[in-house]
Amino acid sequence: MSAGYVIEAPKQASIAVTGSDQRFPVRRIYCVGRNYVAHVREMGGDEQRDPPIFFQKPSDAVIDSGSTIPYATITENFHHEMEMVIGLKSGGYNISEEDALRHIWGYGCALDMTRRDIQGNGKPWEIGKSFDQACPCGPLSPVASVGHIDKGAIKLTVNGETRQESDLSLLIWRVPEIIANLSTYFELMPGDIILTGTPHGVGPVQVGDELVGTIAGLEPLKIKIGPRPS
């Protein structure tokens, strides 16, 4: 048992790092909703540049590439949402857009898995978005190796069939704007990760499906959908 705690301390959530045995520790997971025009339209929304929608997932929802994740409980419409994730090395309140990029440690591929049939309808998004293993993440690539990413192909295949395909240049709210806006609500900290939004083409997965997410210049994300927990 860990010294100083009355029960065993939870394991630190973390993400693999490209080309390294070290890992990126995860403090919080922030997500941006409806950040591509075509996705806003497919969800029945207005494509105006409304303020970004933010929500969170629990840090231990992170799961490594190569894993099998269970088909989520309490849903019959389990959806994939392919996204770029950024990991922060520093933070603060009221970060300016001009200063935002210097807080980023690295970039990677991620999935915002969603219980679509219980998301929304006037209810908090949390129950539809924040559950066990709801945030598969590929290895993070450091800015020192890949630079800052603001364009490039983003794609998801399911069993080899393309489901989502777009370009990061089509983000409604760009990465510096996301960081600046989010930092007005929360004090951002080292270890925070931000999922930057999904393009159009979101849809259901089934047990046995194999998902591969790619972003130009980054390590791919690969997961498989396993049976629902008993």
TrEMBL record:
The keyword Hydrolase applies. This is Fumarylacetoacetate hydrolase family protein. Gene3D superfamilies: Fumarylacetoacetase-like, C-terminal domain. GO terms for molecular function: acetylpyruvate hydrolase activity; metal ion binding. It comes from Neoaquamicrobium microcysteis. Residues 29-222 form the Fumarylacetoacetase-like C-terminal domain. Keywords: Hydrolase, Metal-binding. The lineage of its organism: Bacteria, Pseudomonadati, Pseudomonadota, Alphaproteobacteria, Hyphomicrobiales. It comes from the Bacteria.
